[in-house]
Please model this.
Amino acid sequence: MENRLGNPRNTIEIIQKYEFAFQKKFGQNFLIDTHVLDKIIRSAGVTKDDMVLEIGPGIGSMTQYLAEAARAVVAVEIDANLIPILKETLADYNNVTVINEDILKVDIKKLAEQYNGGRPIKVVANLPYYITTPIIMGLFESGVPIDNITVMVQKEVADRMQTGPGSKDYGALSLAVQYYAEPYIVANVPPNCFIPRPKVGSAVIRLTRYEKPPVQVSDPALMFKLIRASFNQRRKTLQNGLNNAAELSFTKEQIAAAIESLGVSPTIRGEALTLEQFAALANYFSENCL
Ligand code: SAM
Model:
C-alpha cells in the first residue's frame, strides 16, 4: 500500500507535515521497520474474528497493519496532538476507533464488552516504556477477558517477565506474568528500528493467557500481597518482609509456621521462592490463619 507508514520516509513526511514534536514524557519512539511490524501482527495471531486493543497508536503505523488484519481495532492515545494525524493516516479504515485518553484511566473491561461482546480480546502495542508494569499488571488483575498480549517492551523488562529465582531481575512482575500467562520472546529489536532511537534495546514479547493458571491458589489476591511484601523489602528475610508488610496482619508465629510448612530455611529471602512456593504459602495462610 502506497501510504503505509512504518517506513522511515513516510513517517518523517507525516511528522514534518504536522510539525509534530516528540514528547519524551509520553515515551514516544515510533516504529519505522515494516519487518518488525509484520512480525508483531503475525505472532499475535490476529484474525478477522479479533478485536484488538492498541495502546498508544502514535501516528498509526501499527494501527494500519492491525486494521487490515483484525475485525475491529480500538486505539487509546494520550497525546491530543496525535489525534488529527491519526484522522489522516487511518482515513481508509472504517474498523478503527481512536480514543484520546490515558490508558491507565480507561475501563478496558467495558471496551471489551462494547466492541467484542465480552469475548477475549488481543492487546497489541509498542508500549510507552515508562508505564509498562502498571499496564501489564492492570490488564491481568482487573479481569479483562484476554486472549494474548503482544507488546514491545524494554529488553530488560522482557527478560524480567521470563525469569525465575536466582536472577536479580526476578520480581513481582515475573511472578504475575508467569501466573497469568505463558511468556514467549518473539524478537529482539535494536534502537535503529525507531524514531527517535531509544537508549535501550527492545524486545517483542507475547503473553498467552492461561485458561487455568499453572498453580492452584485459593486466594490469588492474598498470594500477590505476599509477593509484593517479599519484594518490597528484597534484602530482608521472608519472615521480616511478611512481618513488616502493612497489607498483611499475620502474627510472627503464624508466619514462622507457614515458612516451616514449605520445608525451607527459616532465614530464606522472599526472592528465593518459586511461584509454586508462593502459592503453597498463600494456601497455608488461607487454610490455617484466616
Ligand atoms: N504505536 C506507535 C508506534 O509503534 O510507532 C507509537 C509507540 S510509542 C513507543 C508509545 C505511544 O504511547 C505514544 O504514541 C504515546 O503518546 C502513547 N502513550 C504514552 N502514554 C500513554 C498513556 N498513558 N495512555 C495512552 N497512550 C499513551
Remarks:
- The domain at 8-209 is CATH 3.40.50.150 (Rossmann fold).
- The pocket of S-adenosylmethionine is lined by residues 26-31, 55-58, 61-62, 76-79, 82, 102-104, 126, 128, 131 (CB under 6 Å).
